[in-house]
Design a protein that fits this description.
TIM Barrel; Lyase, Ornithine Decarboxylase, Chain A, domain 1; 2 domains; 9-stranded mixed sheet; 8-stranded parallel sheet; 11 helices; 28% helix
Amino acid sequence: MSPTVAEISLPALRHNLLEVVRRAGPSAILAVVKANAYGHGAVPVSRALLAAGAQRLGVATVIEGVELREAGITAPILVMSGGFAGELPALLEYRLTPVLPSLETVMVLAHHVAGRAAPLPVHLKIDTGMGRLGLSAREVEALLDGGWPSSLRLEGVMSHLASADDRDATATEEQLVQFRAILEIVKRAGMAPIAHIAGSAGVLRFPASHFDMVRPGLMLYGYTPGAMKVNTLEPVLTWKTYVVQVKRIAPGQAVSYGGSFVARRPTTAAVLAIGYADGYSRGLSNQGRVLINGGIAPVIGRVCMDLTMVDVTEFPSVKADDEVVLLGRQGSTSITADNLADQLGTISYEILTGIGPRVVRVYRE
């Protein structure tokens, strides 16, 4: 049994999904569970979200989709990253729906699946301003003017909002104008696919972006993109570890690799069963904070691969096996993924997805 666990609150997960439903209205919900459901565990989270009302799932890669299928999940799964080199047999065998981001991928896939009994459902990715994957409006017109391949069924047309969490809404509104124009092109070609462009920020800030379906990700797990603040969401994950040993550090004694911390006073240190191999970043060396015995203890010295030291001088009752909260709430105090992200100069997405596979996920009702 691992001393370090990530506890996943299924009630909080369902609550956040209901927040999506409340905002999205009649739009269908594709729950984004890529990157191991943002570190929360793809299979259990997918099952819980589908049981609570999500209709579809979104993953980044074919192998993520295969994992869900092999776990017995039968709901539609959209593979969104667009790369299928060498993975086409698995994509077809496991009934995964690909996102096609270029003219080349449309033509290559249409050729490979020609002769199937039924056309393969696909979603077409449009670049309306992200500057990443997707066809331009001109390419869409050229594709449809030449005739949509009969071996493919255009189930969906999608794009991605690049700046929906910015205070200035101009760029997002311009993307929505472009997306609507492309949908008109598709409509004139006699097709009526599912239209979707909104992720979490779109769900929260831009009702006009909801179209036929929304793709919430981060907000399902209780966080919001950028500087957005939504008090109705509940963080789903609590990250815990335990004290391995308590030891006394004399003044002038160094702690951990490189001696980057030197005690200036008699110090009590707790050694924790967590390190950067678990996803607790080395960047938190000498600046991280943990919750222990109802208080806040600072990280001292460099975070190691498997162990981390904290100063518990102010907590004389701390002993081996005491519980420590790295992310979540203990008593009246909490540490959020946003707090850790601010310390590391990153975003909450990276904190959550960086929690390593040897951290056991435990699901709580």
